[in-house]
Amino acid sequence: MRLVIRQDYDEVSDWVAHYVKERINQFQPSEERPFVLGLPSGSSPVGCYERLSNFCKSGQLSFKHVVTFSMDEYVGLPREHSQSYYSFLWKHLYQHVDILKENINILDGNAPDLDEECRRYEAAIVKVGGIELFLGGIGPDGHIAFNEPGSSLTSRTRVKTLAYETIIANSRFFDGEVSKVPKLALTVGVATVMDAREVCIIIVGAHKSVALAKCVEEGVNHMCTVSAIQLHPKGLIVCDEDTTLELHVKTVKYFKSIEHVHQSLIGTENLSLQGQVLSAKGSTSRITKRRESDINSLTSSYSNNSNDNDKGDDMDQRPNKKKKGSVQ
Ligand SMILES: N[C@@H]1[C@@H](O)[C@H](O)[C@@H](COP(=O)(O)O)O[C@@H]1O
After folding, report:
1. What confidence score (pLDDT) does residue 300 get?
2. What DSSP string runs through 271-298?
3. Which of these is catalytic: 148, 195, 259, 294?
4. Is the Cβ atom of 107 under 6 angstroms away from ligand 1?
5. Can you give the pLDDT at residue 262?
């Protein structure tokens, strides 16, 4: 698993948006072979969606051959309600990009048979060949999608009762009134997310620092369902400095050092890394704006490799590395 730490929300959004853009562009999707992307709702991905929309407007990215599956939806909330995840994704992403309507998959929280709707969703994912990249967010208790504490780590798309903590956390979107928050939701399962060929979780804010620490420093545990990412061969978490509050200093230094080495191998240590080193020394200086091409080269090098910290994978980044068995 990789942990990428950026200074603040904007830098996290920049990083993830560039990463998604690079992954889609490298994949060279076509009608026959679309890029399948899993998407979260919530405030965490909004900055990323804004940037993806801008990439589309400036012609750097196209969603024409991208198929999406959103993570979750409230039960019983009309689709046109401003807080349905359907409305959310249209507002923040779909209306701004060139995605084809038939390529958008959203769970229907008003389906007459909710169990059947969940089965249909799982089958639709299988039909397109599985999810290439699942973007995700978490709740303060470490739930991924709506997989509340205690959810099976082998769970599939299903109906879930929301935890009281989640209802309170989400009441900020319902005029602060707990009674207005739906108590049930449809959600992809933990295993649905972990089946994706790659998983990238955005975690921002001090209120999620305990969850991040549990996810990174403790074992895989159903009480913090995002921790299942530890078992994923290409798991990536992108967080901001505030979210690292509960991590051990040595954990933060470790992941920063991995990134430092990684970046120096691809020759960008004087750019984005400068900020990392400064902040590791306690400097309050912000990371200077990186050139887009540098971020692109960094993000693409991540996507070409397994995201675990195995030395062999990192070393494969060396430009002059002689491949095993190649003529020398
Ligand atoms: N079910 C959603 C999750 O999919 C989302 O990741 C989480 C975090 O939301 P935010 O990013 O607004 O903190 O909220 C809800 O509980």
Report:
1. 55
2. THHHHHHHHHTT--PPPPPPPHHHHHHH
3. 148
4. no
5. 79
Q: List helix spans (H) across the chain.
A: 9-27, 46-57, 85-92, 114-127, 164-170, 190-194, 209-217, 249-265, 272-280, 292-303, 311-315
Spell out, as residue ranges, where the chain has pLDDT lower than 50. Answer: 269-291, 310-328
- The verdict on whether 72 is a catalytic residue reads yes
pLDDT of residue 261: 85
Pocket test for ligand 1, best of 73, 89, 143, 210 (most atoms within 8 A of CB): 143
At residue 298, the pLDDT reads 54
CB contact set of 59 (below 8 Å; sequence gap of 6+): none
Element containing residue 241 per DSSP (H, E): none
CA 296 vs. chain centroid, Å, equals: 17
User: Catalytic: 141?
Assistant: yes
Q: In degrees to the nearest 10, what's the CA dihedral of 7, 11, 17, 18?
A: -90
pLDDT recorded at residue 306? 56
Give all domains of the chain, ordered by start, each with its CATH number.
Answer: 2-247 (3.40.50.1360)
Whole-prediction pTM value? 0.84
Contact present, 263 and 272 (Cβ < 8 Å): yes
Instruction: Given the residues 11, 22, 72, 198, select the one marked as catalytic.
Output: 72
